[in-house]
């Protein structure tokens, strides 16, 4: 009996392990590419919203029209992935705000200039907004806050917080999808590799048994495998060996009789 792990299991283990390693690598690569792409898309969308808002709010800000400023802030906050919008004047006082979760007072800056851009009017910070739910639990939402000046003489700043949760949800969905495809591929790989391994080991065991019979003097059993690959060639070689030994023994028997 062969020692160690049978070839029947070595082949599936090697195939599945290789597929698993490659699959995990592909999953991480896809998630990384999707994450980078979504981060760029999210910040670019935030820049567009902040730029439009800065142009629209310039005249109401000069005229100190609080109602119009608030209306423009409310409209800008309705875009997908926008967590909050607020306008600060040149003295950095909040002129208007619209937070979907919490308020300006619950906003914290985690990291300034988290995405550095050369020669840009935009400043991108990583912020966090905390808010208590109805159950009393604290909810924290991280955002990329895009800030841009209002007017050429900098009357104030338009700030747009783009929710990272929006990006994280898409990344999570992508990871689940890729992981599901990977799991399905591994299961199919196990089924196919076990089938091929069983077929291969069955042929090898047959050839081993045939070789044992020949070594014990049984030269009547024909060795035959219907295969055109290396296993088939090995079977043909063992069959030629059996025929040669049988012919040699027959010649020896005829010499003794004569």
Chain-wise SSE layout:
Blueprint: H1 7-62, H2 66-76, E1 82-89, E2 94-99, E3 107-111, E4 123-132, E5 138-150, E6 156-163, H3 164-215, H4 230-257
Antiparallel strand pairs: 1-2, 1-6, 3-4, 4-5, 5-6
Helix pairs in contact: 1-2, 1-3, 3-4
The number of helical segments is 4
Q: Say which CATH homologous superfamily of the largest domain is assigned.
A: PAS domain
The CATH architecture of the largest domain can be named as 2-Layer Sandwich
Radius of gyration: 37 Å
**Count of individual domains:** 2
Structural class: alpha+beta
CATH topology of the largest domain: Beta-Lactamase
Give the gist of this structure:
This protein has 258 residues and is of the alpha+beta class. The protein folds into two domains: 9-164, Beta-Lactamase (2-Layer Sandwich), CATH 3.30.450.20; 174-257, HAMP domain in histidine kinase (Helicase, Ruva Protein, domain 3, Orthogonal Bundle), CATH 1.10.8.500. It has four helices and six strands, in the order H-H-E-E-E-E-E-E-H-H.
What does this structure look like?
By secondary structure, this protein is an alpha+beta fold. The protein folds into two domains: 9-164, Beta-Lactamase, CATH 3.30.450.20; 174-257, HAMP domain in histidine kinase (Helicase, Ruva Protein, domain 3). Helices cover 57% and strands 19% of the residues. It has helices spanning 7-62, 66-76, 164-215, 230-257; strands at 82-89, 94-99, 107-111, 123-132, 138-150, 156-163. A six-stranded antiparallel β-sheet has the order 2-1-6-5-4-3. A hairpin with a 5-residue loop joins strand 5 (138-150) and strand 6. The longest helix has 56 residues, at 7-62. It is rod-shaped. The model has no long low-confidence stretch (mean pLDDT 86).
